[in-house]
Request: fold
Amino acid sequence: MTDVEKRTDRSPVPADWTYAPAPESTEIVSLRERYGLFVGGSWMAPRAGEFFETISPRDESPLAQVGQADEEDVAAAVEAAREASQTWSKLAPSERAKYLFRIARILAERSREFAVLESLNGGKPIKESRDVDLPLAAAHFFYYAGWADKLEYAFPNRRPKPLGVAGQIIPWNFPLLMLAWKIAPALAAGNTVVLKPAETTPLTALLFCDVVRQAELPPGVVNIVTGDGRTGAALVDGDVDKIAFTGSTEVGKAIQRRLAGSDKKLTLELGGKAANIVFDDAALDQAVEGIVNGIYFNQGHVCCAGSRLFVQESIYEPVVEKLKRRMATLRVGDPLDKNTDVGAINSRMQLDKIEELVAAGRDEGAEIYQPPCRLPEKGYWFAPTVFTNVAQSYRIAQEEIFGPVLSVLTFRTPDEAVEKANNTPYGLSAGIWTEKGSRILWMAERLRAGVVWANTFNRFDPTSPFGGYKESGFGREGGLHGLEPYLAFDD
Ligand code: NDP
Reply:
């Protein structure tokens, strides 16, 4: 009998966690029936009069109608931003900082309202939107407020200047947080912005317009245009000085092709297929927590998710055993229940994609494990999943699934771990679990990943730059590095 089996005997995991429901009230959120576009500080109806419905993925219930911006609407938003940039860019930097501090404070004050709306519209567990998305979004505004009047010190002798108008396109996995990652550094650097949220999660960006007004930001400094991919494409083609994009590698490549030869600056934060590497000297229980957080956080809708687990061969069995036992304790269900660990999948489309890749994993010969759990009947759900017996060539080991699906592979030596971890077109993040500091440094130097976590995973901080190599994109967001793409320099 192995150690793990013995321990199972002593402290069996209950088959069913009978927590009483602890639903967060939605009363704090008041939604309008219909939202227009936020242009020049006012709400504007889309010229073509086209609207689409945004729903809650937890039960497919409609939440609101949202405007579909066309090329002319986008052009009007860019024009408003251009006009506002005349005064915003000349404002004393310490005054710009005050607005950013104000936004940060308001976000913190209204964090419960934003957290509930984020979970309603996006499907992520309330404990994540409450404890991760909202505090981090406010922290980004606080952090970049601090830089606004220190740009000359941040880039000495380079005379930093704002670029003008930034077009920003964001995805649905961290709607408000991605907005903060984009808007805070752009405004601190003296730019004005036109931002397009994702089609499935526009509501916190629209609520943010309220914050913009409450902070009395001059009209036109922040403009929000909603719509589908066509709206994003119109923004890319618009009269903007920079495009900042976060989303799929496919769309990122299309944008790069589109902008080739133009003067527009570009940063791309794209997909990932991170390796989470566990050595035999690691603290295994902590590592298992890190593995679970790495892949099941936000239903795996995370570009830097640790979706490929590499376990040193000698500890493969205990790690997989512990992982399965831990997975059996995850509670899947209503995102607004405070006990929920894994919420709803963001959209029907994303669920189809996850199901297709999981079917491919089975067909190719991998072994699947899903803990027994009751999934709600309505809405979009997928049980936490782990695949063992995975070959590197399998689609589940190569493609970004963007769902709660982990592929487990093994290695014998540090060299082999590096080789296998780097065997991907992506290069966004990686994790290393070992007690040995020198090994962490040795590995971190060799892993082709923009972010490498050691003995932890999925930790974010506004002071720390984030971004990728290879098909994960280029440019950094966060930290001092995150200001640079929004500035022009004399040199
Ligand atoms: P997309 O790349 O399509 O979407 C990202 C943003 O770009 C959205 O606002 C989208 O609008 C917009 N967009 C779509 N087409 C264009 C275009 N031609 N020009 C300009 N903007 C455009 O990602 P999806 O939401 O479709 O997700 C697809 C896959 O991408 C996921 O399964 C996942 O693997 C990956 N992904 C990666 C993310 C990351 O952080 N790295 C984030 C999100 C997705 P709209 O929402 O209206 O389509």
